[in-house]
């Protein structure tokens, strides 16, 4: 083999090894996400937390809380689809019974008015003490937003820290995704399952492995098979 042939072989092997390693890395990432999902599922099977037990590092735990709605601070998060329809996520603070703090509750989904997108649908919020069952989550999902966030009833995003300063409420650094039926509030609660991006990792792994195979196939064809066929066809 000539020096050029050795260089081509080394480059092909290096690229094939790199792409194969990247494919394995993507599979490792998928395995980590599966382990994370198993942990989330395990947390969801533990006993529900009550008012006195709710804390800062217990995401995905089930809760059964008692408190009163702070209806005047209800926020409608815009551009949140559910079941293929455009609408709002309704978020209302729940002042916890027997405590001085409150927690944001993602109560459910309401459709957007097709004629006037700024018109809010009717929402029944019971007065007095209520019981809310759900699971603990981080802040509501954020969407891309130009400029500073709005401060009215309809918003694109909701920052709990800024919202606490705005309302004067002492908010816990987490939210509750309500799963229990509301009392005639008309909200849907077909919450999407958390997207761990498994298909993305598997797709990237397939692409890297395919590129690795392509590099080896091209090397074999152009460096081994094609020159041999050319020599055989010469008179």
Automatic annotation (TrEMBL):
Main subcellular location: membrane
Organism: Pelomonas aquatica
Membrane topology: Multi-pass membrane protein
Record has Membrane as a keyword: yes
Protein name: SURF1-like protein
Keyword Transmembrane helix: yes
Subcellular location: Cell membrane; Membrane
Family: Belongs to the SURF1 family.
Keywords linked to the UniProt accession: Cell membrane, Membrane, Transmembrane, Transmembrane helix
Membrane-spanning ranges: 202-222
């Amino acid at each position: 083999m000539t020096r050029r042939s050795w260089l081509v072989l080394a480059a092909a092997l290096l690229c094939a090894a790199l792409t194969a390693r990247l494919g394995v890395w993507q599979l490792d990432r998928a395995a980590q996400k599966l382990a994370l999902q198993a942990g989330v599922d395990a947390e969801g099977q533990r006993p529900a937390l009550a008012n006195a037990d709710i804390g800062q590092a217990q995401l995905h735990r089930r809760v059964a809380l008692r408190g009163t709605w702070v209806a005047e601070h209800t926020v409608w998060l815009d551009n949140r689809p559910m079941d293929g329809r455009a609408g709002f996520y309704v978020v209302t603070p729940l002042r916890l019974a027997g405590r001085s703090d409150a927690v944001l509750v993602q109560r459910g989904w309401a459709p957007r008015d097709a004629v006037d997108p700024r018109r809010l649908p009717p929402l029944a919020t019971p007065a007095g003490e209520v019981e809310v069952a759900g699971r603990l989550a981080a802040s509501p999902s954020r969407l891309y937003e130009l400029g500073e966030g709005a401060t009215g009833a309809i918003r694109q995003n909701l920052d709990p820290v800024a919202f606490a300063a705005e309302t004067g409420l002492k908010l816990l650094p987490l939210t509750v995704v309500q799963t229990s039926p509301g009392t005639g509030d008309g909200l849907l609660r077909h919450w999407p399952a958390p997207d761990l991006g498994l298909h993305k990792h598997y797709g990237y792994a397939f692409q890297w492995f395919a590129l690795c195979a392509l590099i080896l196939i091209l090397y074999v064809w152009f460096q081994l098979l094609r020159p041999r066929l050319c020599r055989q066809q010469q008179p």
